[in-house]
Amino acid sequence: MGEGQTKRPNIVFILTDDQGAWAMGCAGNGEVKTPNLDRLAASGVRFDNFFCTSPVCSPARASLFTGRIPSQHGVHDWIREGSVGPNAIEYLAGQLAYTDVLAENGYVCGLSGKWHLGDSVKPQKGFTHWFVHQTGGSPYYNAPMIRDGQPYNEPAYVTDVITDDALAFLDRQAEEGEGQPFYLSVHYTAPHSPWLNGNHPQEYLDMYADCPGESTPLHTPKHPWLIKTAPGEDNRLESLRGYYASITAMDANVGRILDKLEAQGLTEDTLIVFMGDNGFNFGHHGVFGKGNGTFPQNMYDTSVKVPAIFSQPGRIPQGVVSAAMASGYDFMPTLLEYAGLQNPVAEDLPGRSFLPQLLGETPGERTDVVIFDEYGPVRMIRYEEWKYVHRYPYGPHELYDLANDPDESANLIDAPEHRETREAMKAQLEQWFVRYVDPAIDGAREPVSGFGQLAEAGVRGKGKKAYHDLE
């Protein structure tokens, strides 16, 4: 711990589902209303270049918790089967999560909301409080939840209910915690679809009744690889309005959490992290959805960049927007270092702590950082000014000059003048993945469709069909 710290910080980690990095007022979006996220950003550091490790929910979430890339933890697509029932699968069994380390060092760990990493009935990874969604996504009313080990359908609006449970956890800690630090994960299903047909309170829908939808390129022609994994394409403007309504409803609940911590006098003792699991496209590149909005899967910045805000007044600088590049695989080492704890598996993990940048202790950004992503057989390497995407085994591949083409509109893969750049980036990508991939669950050999994972990957699956077919 840093000088002057007498106790470990409490940690509240708020994670949203399918929220594009562009879908916040503080990120420059003039249509979506996020006053509480804007307030949180003003009190801390917002990262403009934070990347998920895989542009779909379950793999990205597994990487946040374990610090491993998908080809190390084995979750290569969103979990379609194995969440509940007699054939439930604990996809991260035997893998250390940062919450395990926190719990072993005296933290009381609670989870309210979406788990979506298998065997949802069973509390895992050091959590002693466990109120979770049975699967991943669902309607916002009558959502399938698990409370006290019992599956049930929640009649109330699930965004509110997740927050109610989180606030009850905070109240219990205030009354019974005996000074123990706490870690609380608040994992909203918002703003994941559905957005229409009465899924959100009318008061929030009314806020967007006249929204023109000018904050996204809604009318871009459809991408030729577009597949039906998100519903926004069919009713574009009304879907965007519903998407924004779900975000504003979630934002109001974030405000409830911030207010509770303030009322308890815990704001300066608590690290608050707000993050999205993966990016999202609402017409960007002609895509509606995330990495699996197309087949083959895409690695556009709008799919792989996520919102990321860190706040603890008195320790983290306020009102800072950082251009430093960081990844979901950097989250575990950063969080543990922030809490003053050793990472016992650091040598096996690809991530590196960005704590100096977070605390403003270094004058410059992390200029030598390279970002790597994977989604099944699709892999990406990204520099500050260049991006290369490789699709095993046959392509198509992509190369973008981000300095001159930030919208990734001109694929330079066949441009002879960029051959050396392409070859150097491909070589670096292959060397990096060879270093960290577990050959038994190597995503480059997995037939990931974007329509869900059915069983464990690679040899762990013992011959079972591991992925749903392309629809």
Automatic annotation (TrEMBL):
Which GO terms of the molecular function aspect are on file? Answer: arylsulfatase activity; metal ion binding
Q: Which residues form the Sulfatase N-terminal domain?
A: 9-340
Query: What organism is listed for this UniProt entry?
Result: Paenibacillus contaminans
One Pfam short name: Sulfatase
InterPro entries the UniProt entry points to: Alkaline_phosphatase_core_sf, Sulfatase, Sulfatase_CS, Sulfatase_N
List, alphabetically, the CDD domains matched: sulfatase_like
What domain of life? Bacteria
Q: Which SUPFAM superfamilies match?
A: Alkaline phosphatase-like
Instruction: Return the protein name.
Output: Sulfatase
Family of this protein: Belongs to the sulfatase family.
Q: Which UniProt keywords apply?
A: Calcium, Hydrolase, Metal-binding
